[in-house]
Here is the input.
Amino acid sequence: MKIFQSAMLTIAEHIKKVAESLDPAQVEGFVEEILKANKVFVYGAGRSGLVGKAFAMRLMHLGIDVYVIGEIVTPAISDGDLLILISGSGETTSVVNAGRIAKKAGARVILITTYPNSTAGKIADHVVVVEGRTKLKGEKDFILRQIKGVHHSLAPLGTLFEAAVMVFLDGIIAELMNRLGKSEEDLRVRHATIE
Here is the structure.
């Protein structure tokens, strides 16, 4: 039972490291883009997509006009809108394609990633770097772990990135609540009544 505790501590330590290393200008730019957008769209693939959906829900609770790409009620993206992409590698094909389509429609694009110089990073208007051992980086880390005698990872694949982004985005919600003068009660009013 010590493995699960070590894994949790590894993830918590990583999140603390990320919180201390985030670039304040990147964070400020991210918040400003959300506040000035007509509509906000969120997209990520796999577990990054689940993190994005959780963020979209909180944005909705704040009264922001937000949609998740791929849902059947999502409208067209257009000029004045914002697309937030989440991809540890910045190379996920569907994420890159979503970014290209949004840019052609005149929308602004933000990428949350570990790799700012990735394909999606080059498409984005603004990038927020969140360090994490993504699946891509994990392939490189494998050899290092083998040399050091560490033969398993306590946080496999993109877990560190996804967990850090989840907490980062919750921090963004707290910042938005403050700037918009919203309380937890204001959010509760918009919470689903049918679940």
